[in-house]
Design goal:
It is built from 15 helices and 15 strands. The protein is of the alpha/beta class and 418 residues long. The strands form 4 sheets. The protein has a 6-stranded mixed beta sheet, with helices on both faces. Helix 1 crosses helix 2 and helix 11 packs across helix 12.
């Protein structure tokens, strides 16, 4: 590992994202504050006021305007960042597609939070999963350290000429965004060298090489060409993420892995999860392994592009898998992570019984008891799968009986089959 200076801090995830923004020294930051993201831009505004950055800080009238301003700034060749959460992200909806379709390397931090109604300001993945198909690269931090590291890596990936796509770095609202954590801050000089200077390939302000953005493509084949280009860029990002992550590991000593595993050398019962709950699951798995139980955890740090090969390789030896989603897809077969994981397994020809658990919505507690129960449930899953039982979606941590929901779906599916 190279000689670097790192300062150990007691800091929240929001504070660490603000520090990463400061060290990247973006040209423009348009923003509208919304809980639990507000600390990020409050901290960054102090950096602007103190002259620690030379960023054009643009307070706007709404989150929709924040992304519109980010699109304008990025089109003009500026390194551009913003931050949002929940209803604010939802308000950006159409602009998210514009940013990705115009291949703009905007970096946005999202403090994951529930969507209304009912009104709830606490953390889940409902908001960020709503934009999973917009064409943005999506990273999920387990803790404040990863929120910092992901943000710096995001600049390099977004601005890479083989990618040129916006990146959303996410951290769970209040759990990671506000709670104090131990985190290491890299020295400014090292980060400046790592992030580098952004040199746009095309800029609206380049009069020597004039370009147009957001052109009319009414013919379907032209429109499809742009979407194919986005897909290829997203596929390119696999390699770029690995290369940039490996470079960051050499500098910081911290790995950047698409899929993080614990106990998977011999695990038979496995939990698949994202975000702040990875640590809880790892803790419970450690307790159970100390008793001789073969359990493991697979945590995803990258959701877009979806790391299908890495995930399936990690799961191949399992006998029963619990896939935990902190977002609902009401009326669907399961949550977003479950759907992607099952599709990846099916494509690879891997057949392992799975059960989808919906948990932690609106900041509902993810207790160690819940995770212990999930591991216990997995003992019966292979037998149920052998009988052909249709298990459906299981809610954990809700006052309403999860068993009722599960049984109703099974009954409905059985009736339909008859």
């Amino acid at each position: 590992m190279a000689e670097t200076k790192q300062t150990v801090l007691a800091a929240s995830g929001d504070q660490m994202v603000a520090e990463a923004f400061r060290q990247a020294n973006p040209d423009v930051l348009p923003v509208y504050p919304i809980t639990p993201q507000t600390i990020i831009v409050e901290e960054f505004d102090k950096f602007v006021a103190d002259g620690k950055v030379h960023t054009e800080f643009v307070p706007v009238e709404s989150e929709h305007s924040a992304m519109a301003a980010a699109i304008g700034a990025s089109s003009a060749g500026a390194r551009t960042v913003t931050a949002t959460a929940s209803q604010g992200l939802a308000y950006m909806w159409e602009e998210l597609y514009v940013a990705a379709g115009m291949r703009l390397p905007i970096v946005m931090a999202n403090a994951n939070r529930a969507l209304s109604a009912p009104i709830n300001i606490h953390g889940d993945h409902s908001d960020i999963m709503g934009c999973r198909d917009t064409g943005w690269i999506m990273l999920f931090a387990e803790n404040a350290q990863e929120a910092y590291d992901d943000t710096l890596i995001a600049f390099r990936v977004a601005e890479h000429p083989d990618v040129m796509l916006p990146v959303a770095t996410t951290l769970d609202g209040f759990i990671t965004s506000h709670a104090l954590d131990r985190a290491e801050l890299m020295d400014d000089e090292t980060v400046a060298k790592f992030v580098g200077e952004y040199k746009p390939q095309h800029s609206l302000l380049d009069t020597e090489d004039p370009v147009s953005y957001g052109m009319f493509a009414n013919l379907g084949n032209f429109y499809m060409e742009t979407k194919l280009g986005q897909r290829k860029a997203m596929e390119n990002s696999f390699k770029v993420l690995r290369e940039v992550g490996a470079e960051w590991e050499k500098i910081s000593g911290r790995p950047f892995e698409f899929v993080k595993t614990y106990g998977m050398e011999d695990a038979e019962r496995v939990i698949v999860v994202m975000g702040s709950s990875i640590g809880n699951a790892r803790h419970v798995a450690r307790e159970l392994r100390a008793k001789g139980e073969k359990v493991g955890v697979v945590g995803l740090r990258v959701f877009r592009p979806f790391p299908a090969y890495d995930l399936v390789d990690a799961l191949r030896g399992a006998k029963a898998i619990a896939i935990m989603d902190r977002a609902e897809t009401v009326g669907g077969q399961g949550g977003p992570l479950w759907s992607e994981t099952v599709a990846a397994m099916a494509t690879a020809g891997v057949s392992i019984p799975t059960r989808n658990y919906i948990y932690g919505l609106g900041g509902a507690d993810v207790t160690l008891e819940i995770l212990h129960q999930i591991y216990e449930d997995l003992k019966e899953l292979p037998a149920a799968h052998e009988k052909g039982d249709i298990l459906g979606v299981t809610y954990v941590g809700a006052r309403t009986s999860a068993q009722d929901s599960q049984s109703n779906l099974a009954a409905r599916s059985t009736s339909a089959a008859k």
